[in-house]
Amino acid sequence: MTPIQSNGYEVFFDDELKDLKDFLDNSDYSKVFFLTDLNTSEHCMPLISQLFPSLDHYDIIEVDPGEENKNIDYCIGVWQMLLDFGADRNSLLINLGGGVITDMGGFAASTFKRGIDFVQVPTTLLAQVDASVGGKTGIDLGNIKNIIGTFTQPKAVFISSKFLETLEHRQIISGFAEIVKHGIIADRDYFNKLKDIDPLKTDKETIYHSVEIKNFVVTTDPFEKSIRKTLNFGHTIGHAVETYSLKNDNRALLHGEAIAVGMICEAFLASRHNGLSSEELVEITEYIRSVFPDYHLKPDSYSDILEFMQNDKKNVNGQIGFALPSEIGKCDFNIYLTKEQIIESLNYYAELGR
């Protein structure tokens, strides 16, 4: 597949990661580091070793998996390990993992000694179609997702579908949420095609088209001043639901599962406040519920969810901001709604499972 040109770097699609090998062979980095979590160390590093038998001059920095560990304490640990391993400003950090690794690794690299180079090797469907593309890096602060971070572009992104073979089905379904989002905000025909796809068999062409959609948006608006805000559809409520679940549920929602909840709630808001037709609201709702598990959203959780939303990055002057579709394939942004309107959307979702 032809590499996609992004903001000063390329996104490569190659199951054998030959482009990564070429990148490393043609570079003169003083030191190379892999940032992994326990899962990618076990399941993905063996593939790296298999594909690059001659690659032996590197160190591995390993962190615990999970969104709850994407914080400053773990980031300090990454910085400390870079220091201990003798990293200098001509070092390279290879972030091998899902969205937590690509987000935190990008942030750690962009701030270590005022910035060292990094590349993204996303190993989850979620990271391949979303987190690894666009130059956003970040960590969470307390209960607030991605509130600390930078806009820093990687040197390259390398996508191999072989890594998806290492994932549990639940992780693949979670990643599919961002693909669905791309169809809703930007491409009606794509959304229609997704209905005929088994998410567990998401093919390379689907991944490629989703990256094309996201890449167009982030290259048009690299610093999220305008159209890039449409990528937040489903995330204002979804992030808050994800945070609530992480704090309160024994089996916390994955990112994509929470975004699925958010997309249904925000589609409801779009139908009330941005012209989305009732027919398309039903279409979005029914399709998302056919792919993702229902979440038992309880009224006594609303106050916590609203509190988490109050600290969202998209807010202005205390107003909670949304990106809402006007129809499937078109999305607007900078729409500010009240707590009462948001509660109405939460009630809409809660009633669906009854």
UniProtKB/TrEMBL annotation:
Organism domain of life: Bacteria
Keyword Nucleotide-binding attached: yes
Positions of the 3-dehydroquinate synthase C-terminal domain: 175-315
Cofactor: Co(2+); NAD(+); Zn(2+)
An example Gene Ontology molecular-function term: 3-dehydroquinate synthase activity
Claim: Nucleotide-binding is one of the keywords in the record: yes
Segments passing through the bilayer: none
Primary enzyme class: lyase
Entry's Gene Ontology cellular component terms: cytoplasm
GO terms for biological process, alphabetical: aromatic amino acid family biosynthetic process; chorismate biosynthetic process
EC code: 4.2.3.4
Start and end residues of each 3-dehydroquinate synthase N-terminal domain: 61-173
Protein keywords: Cobalt, Lyase, Metal-binding, NAD, Nucleotide-binding, Zinc
Described function: Catalyzes the conversion of 3-deoxy-D-arabino-heptulosonate 7-phosphate (DAHP) to dehydroquinate (DHQ).
NCBIfam families recorded: aroB
Name under which the protein is recorded: 3-dehydroquinate synthase
